[in-house]
Amino acid sequence: MSKLLEFPIIVINFKTYIDSLGERGMKIAKDAERVSNETGVSICVAPQFTDIKSIASAVNIPVFAQHVDPHPPGSYTGSVSVEAIKDAGAIGSLLNHSEKKLQLTSIFTAVKMLKSAGLFSLVCADDVEPAMAVATLNPTMIAVEPPELIGTGIPVSKARPEIISESVQRIRSINREVKILCGAGITKGDDVRRAIELGSDGVLLASGVVKTKDPGAIIREMAEALLNSR
Ligand code: G3P
After folding, report:
1. Model confidence over 156-169: pLDDT tens digits?
2. What is the rounded CA–CA span in Å between residue 138 and residue 177?
3. Which CATH code fits 9-229?
4. 126 Cβ closer than 6 Å to some ligand 1 atom
5. Of the four listed, 95, 136, 143, 224, which is most buried by Cβ atoms within 10 Å?
6. How many Å apart are CA 90 and CA 62, to the nearest integer?
7. Rounded to the nearest whole angstrom, what is the distance from the C-alpha of residue 99 to the centroid of ligand 1?
8. pTM for this one?
9. Which atom of ligand 1 lies nearest, measured to the CA of 204?
C-alpha cells in the first residue's frame, strides 16, 4: 500500500485516548498498515500531534493530523500549523471535528492552506445542512458525524441511515468531486458494510478500534466488510 488516499477508505481517529498514545498508537498504526497491505483496502490513521512524526516514518499508509490552525507560520503560540504537520510527515488533516469545532471562515482558510501545501483535508460536519456548506469549500473529504452517536457504539449507518443517504445525494448536487465519509458509533464490519451500501466513500471511527483489546482484528473485520460491500 502507499501513503496515497484511495477510496473507499477507513480513517481511524486516535483522538487523545491513552490506548492510542505513543507505543500503543504505533502498534495500532502498524496493525492498520498490515491489514491494508493484506487486503488492499486504504486505511488512514490520525494520531496525536506528538506521534505524527514517528508513526509517519514507520508506516506506509496515509497519516493525518487531527486538526490544524488556520494561521501562517509566525507568532501563533500554541497553534499547530500546516507546515508543522507536513514537516512531521502527515499528508492531510481532519478539520472541524465535533470535539474541535472551527468557524466556517476558519475551515475555508485551513482547507485552502492545506491545498496550497499539497495536503488533503477531511472536514467533519454534524448533519446534512452543515455538510452542504462545507462542500462549497471543496475539501478532499467530508465526514458526516452526528455528535450524539460518537463513542456510543450505536452506528450511524444503522441508527440514522437517512443522514448518510441524504448527505450523499445533497452534497453530490453541489460538489461532484468531494469524497463523502460517515462516522460515529461504527464498531463492527457490518456497520462499515452498511455505510458503504448507503453510498459512503468510507468511514471515520475511533473507539471501535482504539478501545478494543485487539485493534488488528477489528481493523481486518472492517476492511473485509468494506471489500465485500464494493
Ligand atoms: O472521528 C471519529 C469519531 O468521532 C467517532 O467516534 O468512537 O464513535 O468511532 P467513535
Report:
1. 999 999 999 999 99
2. 8
3. 3.20.20.70
4. no
5. 143
6. 7
7. 10
8. 0.97
9. 2
